[in-house]
Write a structure and sequence with these properties.
- InterPro entries: PABS (IPR030374), PABS_CS (IPR030373), SAM-dependent_MTases_sf (IPR029063), Spermi_synthase (IPR001045), Spermidine_synt_N (IPR035246), Spermidine_synt_N_sf (IPR037163).
- The chain has helices at about 75-85, 105-110, 125-135, 155-160, 185-195, 210-220, 280-285, 290-295; strands at about 15, 15-20, 30-40, 45-55, 60, 65-70, 95-100, 115-120, 145-150, 165-170, 195-205, 230-235, 245-250.
- By secondary structure, the protein is an alpha/beta fold.
- It has 2 domains: about 15-70, Spermidine synthase, tetramerisation domain (Spermidine Synthase, Chain: A, domain 2); about 75-295, 3-Layer(aba) Sandwich (Rossmann fold), CATH 3.40.50.
Length: about 300
């Protein structure tokens, strides 16, 4: 039975519905019908809720915000993983920061070139919850190529050696609480340092309808030390406004164009994909006029990096 009374803490269930209300997106809310609450606890870092929904399968919620539903998770997981993986040249060593549900990891290990995945997730309770309640998402957690480190991704980036990774994927929650330090110029200076020449970073880039200033900062400030820095759009119906972005940037030092707008190779015929295609890769970089104008207007001086590919 669904909870009939509100849960205590940040996660709210009323009259059998989970209601996502948050100061980060004032004046709007999202709701999913709940069949059964599977888990609700305070971890060391955040409020963790897992419930079985009426139409979207199992759902993981952190600090009152939906992170993943079984129905639409493939759009986010596949795009956040394959945009950088197919933009990189035969990536062998990949770093994933965050992504406690294991979905991005599942997608990364589909690439035959990958020899090792270093996965740094701050909250081990999220990993355990995903293994129990979303096994099809967390299917690669025990993959022999994977090294799971439960710890702070910011500190890990600071301590890692220069030129260590071909691809870095930052699958973070919103820029409050445990993920706040992942949205800073200092973090991306370290990301740039530990990427190999020509390497690619791709991060959860927030919503273009709600976070225009942050997207501006990511592309123009955080991306200033990279050869290219761009924003791609992903459709996720259960996220605020039905949209989320990927901030993607390439370190200088590779042959070919710096932009990540076009994949460098096609997905193999046998790769199991439900959302990502080469066409979806290219289409993700088609932005609405207001955001395109904003990013073009504040691009900054030409010595910061090459001009964005639409200019």
């Amino acid at each position: 039975m669904a909870e009939s009374a509100p849960l205590q803490g940040l996660s709210l269930i009323e009259n059998g519905w989970f209601i996502e209300k948050n100061a980060q997106w004032p004046g709007q809310a999202n709701a999913l019908e709940v069949k059964e609450v599977l888990l609700h606890k305070k971890t060391k870092f955040q409020d963790l809720l897992v419930f079985a929904s009426a139409k979207h399968g199992n759902v993981i919620v952190l600090d009152g915000v939906i992170q993943i539903t079984e129905r639409d998770e493939m759009s986010y997981q596949e795009m956040l993983a394959h945009l950088p993986m197919f933009s990189a040249d035969k990536p062998t060593h990949v770093l994933i920061i965050g992504g406690g549900d294991g979905g991005v990891l599942r997608e990364v290990v589909k690439h035959d070139t990958v020899e090792k995945v270093t996965w740094c997730e701050i909250d081990g309770d999220v990993v355990e919850a995903a293994k129990k309640y979303m096994p099809n998402v967390a299917v690669a957690v025990s993959n022999p190529k994977t090294e799971l480190l439960v710890g702070d991704g910011v500190a890990f980036a600071e301590s890692s050696k220069e030129n260590s990774f071909d691809v870095i994927i930052v699958d973070s929650s919103d820029p409050v609480g445990p993920a706040e330090k992942l949205f800073s110029k200092e973090f991306y200076v370290n990301v740039h340092r530990i990427l190999k020449p020509g390497g690619v970073v791709c991060s959860q880039g927030e919503c273009l309808w709600l976070n225009e200033d942050l997207i501006d900062a990511m592309v123009t400030d955080y991306g200033a030390c990279f050869a290219s820095a761009e924003y791609a759009s992903i459709q996720v119906p259960t996220y605020p406004s039905g949209q989320i972005g990927a901030f993607i940037a390439r370190k200088a030092g590779t042959a070919g164009p710096a932009s990540c707008r076009s994949p460098r190779r096609e997905p193999p015929a046998g790769m199991p994909l439900r959302y990502y295609t080469a066409e979806m890769h290219a289409a993700a970089f088609a932005l609405p006029a207001f955001l395109r104008k904003r990013l073009k207007a504040v691009e900054g001086s030409p010595e910061k990096r090459p001009r964005l590919s639409w200019q």
